[in-house]
Design a protein that fits this description.
single chain; about 200 residues; alpha+beta; 7-stranded antiparallel beta sheet; disordered C terminus
Length: about 200
């Protein structure tokens, strides 16, 4: 017995969180929200519009391999916030990293092939995207700790090849590229899914 059964102060905490800084191969699944704006390139019913007017993709990231396989991390992928460009600017950086990671492109590569690989023809190109993520820890709207994905790991990282398993070939879009979309990894929670992270203040 590791401890007394009438004193649980030394019992292990059941936070059930993936440790901060863990690198893992993940797959993005977009939960369709049914909102389209063709003028922005938002088609296919992938986007969701919240009650505050913010528009986002409802992302579910599933860990594919390793000790945390099948664990899910929920992240809103921001497309628009009525409060300003911060959400979109943060997301653009993350999406760039995700595409670099999924398509085997160095972040420093500015060749025509690399630039083409950082473009998408639509949200369908992101649905099912597999890449190496760096898992972080944040807090939700209730102040509880939760896992977040704030960045992707690209081929420049020494552990990338081992985690990705194979070297992915760069992909070029088959349709005219939509505007580069933005992603948000901030602590945010959809109004209909209490388990989701809380919405950042600038998305309201």
């Amino acid at each position: 017995m590791s401890g007394l059964w009438n004193d649980f102060n030394d019992a292990q905490s059941n936070a059930n969180l993936i440790p901060k800084g863990t690198l893992a191969k993940v797959r993005l699944t977009i939960r369709p929200g049914g909102f389209d704006d063709p003028s922005q390139g938002w088609t296919g019913g992938y986007a969701t519009r919240g009650t505050t007017g913010a528009v986002y993709l409802n992302g579910e990231f599933t860990v594919l391999e390793g000790p945390y396989a099948r664990r899910k991390i929920f992240t809103l992928i921001g497309l628009y916030s009525p409060k300003g460009p911060d959400w979109a600017n943060m997301g653009r950086s993350l999406i760039r990293g995700m595409l670099n990671s999924a398509r085997g492109i160095s972040d420093k590569d500015q060749s025509p092939q690399a630039q083409a690989a950082r473009r998408i023809g639509g949200f369908a190109d992101l649905d099912g995207l597999e890449f190496v993520a760096r898992i972080d820890i944040g807090t939700d709207a209730m102040g509880e700790e939760k896992n977040e994905i704030r960045s992707a790991v690209t081929p420049d990282h020494r552990d990338y090849a081992r985690i990705i398993g194979t070297t992915p070939a760069p992909m070029t879009p088959t349709a005219p590229a939509a505007p580069v979309i933005a992603t948000q990894t901030a602590a945010a929670q959809t109004p209909t899914a209490p388990s989701m992270p809380g919405r950042p203040s600038w998305a309201e």
